[in-house]
Amino acid sequence: MGKLKRRRTKKIEEIDNEIKNAVNEYKNEPNRYVMISKKIGKGFTSKQIRQRWLSHLDPSICHEEFNEDEKNYIIEWVKDYKNNNSSDKICWTKLISEMNSKFGKLRSENKNIVLLGLSVDNP
């Protein structure tokens, strides 16, 4: 690993730690991501900080690979959702909640099972 890569990785870790500490500090604030953005600076928007927290840093998020049952559940859930809703938009937050209830794992990457190549029409 080159020096530049090590410096960049270290810098990302430092920023991640700042975000984690600030989320804990402002956990009860309604606009905490705006406050964190102002505190950290470094050109990160509140939206970027929120996304980083919800997708990568939140300790309640499961980062393990999906097992076959989970993959199949997602595919079937999306099929059912599309059949029962006229909108083309899929409510991913609803799926996240249902996956958490069924499998006891909170994940932010559910839609990637569908978007990264597992066909909803022909699993």
List the helices and strands and how they pair.
Elements: H1 3-25, H2 32-40, H3 46-57, H4 68-84, H5 92-103, H6 110-115
Helix pairs in contact: 1-2, 1-3, 2-3
Provide the domain count: 2
The rounded distance between the terminal residues' Cα atoms is: 39 Å
The H/E string reads: HHHHHH
Tell me the number of strands. 0
Largest sheet: none
* CA radius of gyration: 18 Å
Share in helix: 55-70%
* Helix vs. strand class: mainly alpha
Low-confidence segments? none
Number of helices: 6
Mean pLDDT: 86
Pfam family, one: Myb_DNA-bind_6
Organism: Rhizophagus irregularis
Domain HTH myb-type: 16-61
Protein name: HTH myb-type domain-containing protein
How is this structure best described in words?
With 123 residues, the protein is an all-alpha fold. The protein folds into two domains: 3-57; 68-115. It contains six helices and no strands. It is globular.
Summarize the structure.
This protein is mainly α and 123 residues long. It contains 6 helices and no strands. It has 2 domains: 3-57; 68-115.
Descriptive key words:
123 residues; 6 helices; Myb_dom; HTH myb-type domain-containing protein
